[in-house]
Amino acid sequence: SFPTRRSSDLRPYRTTSAAEAIRQALDERLYQRVRLDDLAASLYLSRTHMIRLFRQAYQITPYQYLLKGKIRLARSLLVDTRLSIREISSQLAFTDESYFSKVFKSE
């Protein structure tokens, strides 16, 4: 006879699609400089395939998603802290303050 399992023994299985894994990886790297080639390699995907999967799922590229996340975080830091724009742009790994300002204003 087969062993029986009580319902309390059953744990839900969490399946993560590739697009969700990419999104999670981007969310975890908001304070880092992200190279899409490196991110794709860490997820065992080609850069092109990673971008295609992500765009199909979220109608935005991974890079655009990352920038939006950084700007959302920057807004929060501007409101909730006394950090300067220079400090925030540095913390969020923007290459320079002027690029950060340009991206921030465009959002």
Give a quick set of tags describing it:
elongated, 107 residues, 0% strand, mainly alpha, disordered N terminus
Give a concise summary.
61% of the residues lie in helices and 0% in strands. The chain has 107 residues and is mainly alpha-helical.
Number of strands: 0
The end-to-end distance, rounded to whole angstroms, is: 62 Å
User: Which word captures the global form?
Assistant: elongated
Number of helices: 6
Classification by helices and strands: mainly alpha
Global Rg: 19 Å
β-strand percent reads under 5%
Biggest beta sheet summary: none
The overall average pLDDT, rounded, is 86
Q: Which ranges are low-confidence, i.e. pLDDT below 50, for 5 or more consecutive residues?
A: 1-15
**Which H/E pattern describes the elements?**
HHHHHH
The portion of residues assigned to helices is 55-70%
Q: How would you characterize this protein structure?
A:
The protein has six helices and no strands. With 107 residues, it is mainly alpha-helical. It is elongated and about 40 Å long.
